Amino acid sequence: MLSGRSAGTQEVEMEFRSYAPAWCPGVFAAAMGFTILGSSALPIPAQVDSPAPAALTAKADSLDLPDAPVPVASAGSPLDPGERVTLQSSFQPPAQNPTPSTAPSLGDLGLTPADTEGSAARQALFDRRTHMLKMHQRLGLITVIPVAAACITAAGAPPKHGDFSNTTDRDLHIALGATSVAMYAWTASYAIRAPKVSNEHARGGVKWHKYLIYIHAPGMILTPILGAMAFNQINSGQKVHGIASAHGPVAIVTAGSYGAAILAVSWPIHIKF
Amino acid sequence: MKSLSLLTIALLTLSTFAPACAQAPDQTWSLDQSTLTYHMSHPMHEVDGTSHAARGKGVCHAGQCDFLVAATVKSFDSGDSNRDLHMIQTTRGAQFPIVQVRFRLAQASLNSPALDCDLEVLFAGNTAHYTHVQFHQTIEGAAHHITGAIPATLSDFKIEAPSFLTVPIKNAIPVRVDMVWHPS
Question: pTM for the full model?
Answer without folding.
Answer: 0.70
